[in-house]
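Practice problem: Reverse transcriptase zinc-binding domain-containing protein
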Amino acid sequence: MCLLGWESGGAGWQWRRQLWVWEEELLAECTGLLHDIVLHTNISDSWMWRHDIIGGYSVRGAYSLLTTMDVVTTLGVSNLIWHKQVPLKVSVLAWRMLHNRLPTKDNLVARNIISLDARFCVTGCGEPETVNHLFLSCPVFAPLWTLVRSWLGIGPANAELLHDHFAQFVGSLGGSRNRRSFLQLVWLCCTSVLWHERNNRVFKAAGTTIQQMLHKVKVCTYWWLKAHNANLSINIHLWWSSPLVCLGID
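Answer key — structure tokens:
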């Protein structure tokens, strides 16, 4: 691929068929990772511990790094995204999102994949597309959270960062394990629906309304729960209006 050219438009990126949307996402991330790489034929490969380039890796250094990590980030990765009733690809999406590893336009600009003029949100709101803007503050996408909270009967949120938002959302109904697990599932579903909506607008120039996105959240959460508990008795009509009553955790 290096010999064919992996720069933008290089022959190393030619495919026998048109890529799917999810493959386009992986391709954008891959090209971003390779953009700044320069191969030297006269230098041997080596491993490097980026947190201590001079001293190198040590158990003490790794322990210090882990114990000084932001608490919210650690809790978010361990307690939020890995949910047994949620498809693995959704949890992986959430991991990338919380670590700002998604190919949002600000990240693509930083990697010189797109121009600075193309950094604005796909919804046309006029703001740069960052991960926090896209999922929390975009005037086109953000109303989904209001509708979901109304559906669940929980109070509004004022968090501006994703890590704070997940903590506030998951804890909205108190400390009950079942309640937190359900809200965790809903939060993951909402982020997945928003990201797919964003990609449809970018790659297919097709969008849906907020009400249609809410419908997707209700359908997905319903079937995720049913898929892992075939004996779970949920009235689909009651689910549309009172999901907590259906699960007995209101």
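Discussion: Residues 70-78 have pLDDT under 50 and may be disordered. Students who identified this feature from the tokens alone can consider the problem solved.
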